[in-house]
Amino acid sequence: MTLADVLAGVIFLALNAYALLGGADFGGGAWDLLATGPRKERQRELIAEAIGPVWEANHVWLILALVLLFTCFPPAFARLGTLLHIPLSLVLIGIVLRGSAFTFWRYGGGGHGDQEQRHWGVVFAVASLITPLLLGTTVGAIASGALADRAAGTGDAFYATYVAPWLNPFALSVGAFALVAFAFLAAVYLTMEGEERELREDFRRRALASGVALFGVALSALLLSPTAVRRALVFASWAVPLHLLTGAAAVTALAALWYRRWRLARAAAAAQVSLILWGWALGQRPYILPPDLTVAAAAGPPATLRLALAALVLGAVVLLPSLYYLFRVFKAGNRVSLE
Amino acid sequence: MSDLLAARSQMGISLAFHIVFAVVGIAMPLMMVLAERRWQVTGHDIYLDLAKRWAKGTATLFAVGAVSGTVLSFELGLLWPRFMEFAGAIIGMPFSLEGFAFFTEAIFLGIYLYGWDRISPRAHLWAGVGVAVSGAASGIFVVIANAWMNAPAGFELVDGRAVNVDPIAAMGNAAAVSQTIHMTLAAYAATGFAVAGIHAVLLLRDPANAFHRRALQIALMVGAPAAVLQPLSGDLAARHIAVHQPVKLAAAEAVFSTEASAPLTLGGWPDVDAHVTRFAVQIPYALSLLAFHDPHAVVKGLDAVPRDDWPNVPAVHLSFQVMVALGTYLALVSLWVGWLAWRRRDLAHHRWLMRAIAFATPMGFIAVEAGWMVTELGRQPWVIYGVLRTSDAVTPMPGLVVPFLTFTLLYCFLGVIVVWLLYRQILRSPTMPEWRGFYMRSGSGT
Ligand code: HDD
Ligand code: HEM
Ligand code: HEM
Q: Which of B73, B166, B399 sits opposite A67 (nearest CB)?
């Protein structure tokens, strides 16, 4: 394990945290769009209250992963920015609209229920739906090994270079997977947010449904994957234990939801999504951008890597207690225990 | 529009947009904390109301700052992959530290905005201090990165590649000190005067309004000292570029030929083909004196480098003049405020002062934008001064005019909405009768 491997691992951890926390905030937006039934408005209220205090902090995990990527692995960042220019720009538009619409809606002045304010709620929800889809698609493009170094061009080559890597069934299926996974996480977390039994039951049903759907999209992504990817995911030495663990987490999550064991459900759902992510990471080792850019080749000079690690340790000393405090203030309301 | 021009314009628009929110994000938390502290010390609820209303307005701006900052982080790779490939390992460090600063800022902001009823007043105030400190820190880190582009350090160039990379030395680059001081002061001056200006407008209508009087006081406490110091720190910046980036200074001052005992050129329009600046007022010896503190010093002119390496001289000169003019105005108004406050005069009833402050509302922000134009346009054609040309840094992707127009539209749209929301909120600010009860109780007139 080299220093570069450690830092690549840390970047991946940040992405993992982003998926579990920021991802769930996107998922919440999706459920806002899909709010139905007699408790529609109360569902939306609950989602907004759950997201409000934490979404900016959750969002920074993505920034952290990004700045560490360009500090420690500049060539990988440069290639991602070049070849995935189009989907990443679209992701950015989604991020901008999601974040600003949310605050315009919640903080923009008018009282709640204000008709104009509700328009922002809709923008927020639609952006929350589209952004994870595109984000997942870029992950699919990376995982599929389509981002080989190549000369830039125009005309036909433009399509082959800048569009084909991500606009294909496999990449899009990973996008769908990301969307469903985030919605699943959000629904599971939301079962623990509400004070009211009915609301909790609403989100329990949604969690169960999206949990089942997650199996479906995961399977279709696997079937659509390029042969090399599938082989790594199925035949590598770590593959079977990892799949067993993931399967166990998935079944536990669903069973726990069924029996209303909320905390267990939350832990198992988070574990399930994380394991799938680490499966992706393991599957493409030793490449940071398959098929040709390895972690070692992309790594910056040792002086930079050492400093980055030192900064991470130092940063963690400030960050982790603060994060703990944030979540204790707002999420310790595990109101479930009131029952 | 060429791809390079589109990329430069997109970067410029994104930064010009983000900087407004970044500046607010640095200075507003300080003002909220001051108001909240006043509340805790005096027990006057009017300060609590003030802190809460400021926090509410700031929440919107923060979110827009966060998302527009995210766009920038990606754009470094989307538009300038060759730059990042070269510079990432050298200058990624301040960006990473900035990442941590954002994190603490976002965490404490969440606690501050949503935690009024959930934590003790003491803890709440400290959360606000956390936001203020980490906001300033994130600005300082990112400006260090920018300073490195102006004064690259911490590596050796061998065959176009950077070797012997030393990120600490890169952070300690020659421009870092002057730029971070100047930028941080700019944030307090611009925000302080913008807020003071808005409350001054409302005080002109209703000079006895207790709410606006207190808001004005706190805003000036933050804005005025910074505005007084700003020309001094600007002098520091100018002396730095005189030595390290002579072409930028030459463009800013419209100096076409190298000369000793150079005069200072005020106003005017540089005619780049004729190598003269028309319609300008010249003050003999002043430029040599300002830039080198020696009336006979030699100031390098644009003729020191080939014409192809000139930045856009009229744009840089104009921006510089605008910044200095506005900076002078803000500093003079601040001194006036200081004088009146020292003589214990009632500021809110001084109509001419209120007019002068109201007039200054947008000035700090315009100066910030103009100053950045000096820095960024003045560095052209280099993205890393003397090392990497902007044209070699740009992405090979064609059709960049499409994202440029898309993001421009997006920012225009957001800008209009933010202004409209703030306007609505200001209209709802409390009127005198709302606070009459308080007024009677406390019995104080200020
Ligand atoms: C409130 C805003 C404000 C005010 C009043 C001033 N400035 Fe400024 N100036 C900035 C805001 C700013 C800035 C936007 O913050 C810049 C851009 C980059 C930087 O570090 O600061 C800047 C850059 C900048 C530079 C270029 C630095 C570089 O490129 O490295 C110089 C030479 C000056 N300033 C000089 C002055 C002088 C002589 C002023 C006298 C009144 C002045 N500034 C007032
Ligand atoms: C402190 C952090 C900043 C960094 C790291 C930064 C970095 C960059 C980079 C990489 C470019 C593209 C290459 C180039 O054109 O030289 C650029 C261009 C530009 N930036 Fe900055 N910038 C910063 C702050 C700002 C701010 C706050 C503004 C505006 C208010 C600004 C205005 C511009 C403009 C107008 C351009 C286009 C210049 C041109 O190409 O002619 N910059 N900046
Ligand atoms: C002089 C230039 C800049 C200053 C002073 C500055 C400062 C700040 C500050 C204080 C914030 C905190 C959030 C807020 O206030 O709303 C912020 C947000 C942000 N800035 Fe900038 N910034 C500058 C330029 C840049 C550049 C060039 C980048 C990209 C490389 C960048 C990336 C970000 C990011 C990612 C955020 C979001 C953090 C969050 O989620 O809270 N900034 N910036």
A: B73
